[in-house]
């Protein structure tokens, strides 16, 4: 039923639907989070609030009442600073940087971020099952009543002076290179278009 | 206490603590200590839970808990936290009225909280006990 409906979803449909029977789905909403252009931690914090059910006034700590969360475009998640190369995921005597992890499995980045924000109790595993993350923009739950989640607007702080100057320098350099390239290759064409226009 | 009393109190304990007097006596003593402590903790825990519920309820109406309480204090509404949390769970319209009162108490205050967007998809009726059923019954702007 779901697999036939989402014919455009090319991915592991079985994995996406895994464990759905264990969750008591009655009365829960399906919220879709678009991770495109969102900062990793800020998005994860919102997801963890929704998954715990803390945005509902009927929140009860011993009962798991959070909504199902579907995250799409996981590969377009952003991080600030030098985290792409400097943030390291550690295992037993093994390390992997954010960049490598995104290349290998971008969904794991968000999953770890959200999982580490949930309280460490017996409901943690159930809540993990409610979280479905997809690297692309499609999800196989199209036939259910999904609701898009609107992220609260973010206050981006002003760039530090040094970083700002570096950015301006980089922009100018890019412009110069582009102009230099245009002049060298397309100089003749430009003259011709100028003649035609005039 | 004599052994009979101890074993009565040790019902449901794990392993030998419910059967053997030496172990049961220790465990029962500890259990009574915990229950003494937790009779005081329960009041704190319940208040914390009420605050979380009120917070969730007011954020649906784009007000956070702090501003809501500030407004109520100013308007001299002396409802206690237990009642406020019950209202937020079971009486959404009444709670919305309270939030409006609190918001109007400070007209110039900037809106810090952004409520979730209104759902255009019709919310189906779920069984009572889940929050969304009440919302659909009253067709709230949530």
Describe what you observe in this structure.
Chain A: InterPro entries: Ribosomal_uL13 (IPR005822), Ribosomal_uL13_bac-type (IPR005823), Ribosomal_uL13_CS (IPR023563), Ribosomal_uL13_sf (IPR036899). The complex is a heterodimer of chains A (198) and B (142). In chain A, 43% of the residues lie in helices and 11% in strands. Chain A is of the alpha/beta class and 198 residues long. Chain A has two domains: 147 residues, Ribosomal protein L13 (Ribosomal Protein L13p, Chain: A), CATH 3.90.1180; 41 residues. Chain B is an all-alpha fold and 142 residues long. Chain B has one domain: c-terminal domain of poly(a) binding protein (Orthogonal Bundle), CATH 1.10.1900. Chain B contains six helices and no strands. About 7% of the residues of chain B have low confidence. Chains A and B meet through loops of A and helix 2, helix 4 and helix 6 of B.
Topology (elements, then pairings):
The complex is a heterodimer of chains A (198) and B (142).
Chain A: H1 2-5, H2 13-17, E1 30-34, H3 40-52, E2 68-72, H4 83-86, E3 88-90, E4 95-97, H5 98-104, H6 106-115, H7 124-129, E5 131-133, E6 146-148, H8 161-197
Parallel strand pairs in A: 1-2, 1-6, 2-5
Antiparallel strand pairs in A: 3-4
Helix pairs in contact in A: 3-6, 5-6
Chain B: H1 3-9, H2 21-59, H3 65-74, H4 81-90, H5 92-105, H6 131-138
Helix pairs in contact in B: 1-2, 2-4, 3-5, 4-5
What would you call the shape of chain A? elongated
Q: How many structurally independent domains of chain A? A: 2
- Name the chain pair whose interface involves the most residues: A-B, 19 and 26 residues
Number of strands of chain B: 0
**CATH homologous superfamily of the largest domain in chain A - what is it?**
Ribosomal protein L13
Rg of chain A: 23 Å
Spatial arrangement of strands, main beta sheet of chain A? 5-2-1-6
Helical stretch tally of chain A: 8
Q: What is the number of beta strands of chain A? A: 6
User: What is the C-level CATH assignment of the largest domain in chain A?
Assistant: Alpha Beta
Question: What would the CATH topology of chain B be?
Answer: c-terminal domain of poly(a) binding protein
């Amino acid at each position: 039923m779901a697999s036939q409906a989402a014919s455009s979803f090319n991915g592991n449909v079985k994995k996406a639907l895994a464990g759905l029977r264990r969750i008591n789905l009655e009365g829960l909403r399906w919220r879709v989070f678009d991770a495109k252009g969102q900062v990793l931690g800020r998005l994860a914090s919102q997801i963890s609030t929704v998954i715990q059910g803390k945005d509902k006034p009927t929140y009860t700590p011993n009962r798991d009442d959070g909504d199902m969360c579907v995250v799409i475009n996981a590969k377009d998640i952003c991080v600030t600073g030098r985290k792409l190369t400097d943030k390291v995921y550690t295992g037993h005597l093994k390390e992997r940087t954010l960049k490598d992890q995104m290349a290998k499995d971008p969904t794991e980045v968000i999953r770890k971020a959200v999982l580490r924000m949930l309280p460490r109790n017996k409901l943690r595993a159930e809540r993990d099952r409610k979280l479905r993350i997809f690297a692309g923009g499609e999800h196989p739950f199209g036939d259910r009543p999904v609701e898009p989640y609107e992220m609260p607007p973010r206050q981006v702080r002003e760039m530090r002076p040094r970083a700002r100057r570096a950015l301006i320098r980089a922009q100018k350099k890019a412009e110069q290179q582009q102009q230099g390239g245009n002049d060298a290759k397309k100089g003749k064409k430009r003259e011709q278009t100028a003649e035609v226009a005039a | 206490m004599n052994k009979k009393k101890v074993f009565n109190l040790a019902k449901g304990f794990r392993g030998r603590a419910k059967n053997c007097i030496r172990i049961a006596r220790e465990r029962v003593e500890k259990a009574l200590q915990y229950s003494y402590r937790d009779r005081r903790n329960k009041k704190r825990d319940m208040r914390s839970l009420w605050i979380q519920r009120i917070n969730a309820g007011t954020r649906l109406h784009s007000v956070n808990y702090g501003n809501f309480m500030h407004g109520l204090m100013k308007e001299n509404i002396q409802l206690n936290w237990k009642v406020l949390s019950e209202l937020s769970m079971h009486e959404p319209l009444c709670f919305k009225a309270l939030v409006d009162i609190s918001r109007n108490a400070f007209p110039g205050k900037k809106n810090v909280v952004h409520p979730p967007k209104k759902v255009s998809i019709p919310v189906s009726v779920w069984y009572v006990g889940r929050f969304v059923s009440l919302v659909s019954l009253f067709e709230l702007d949530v």
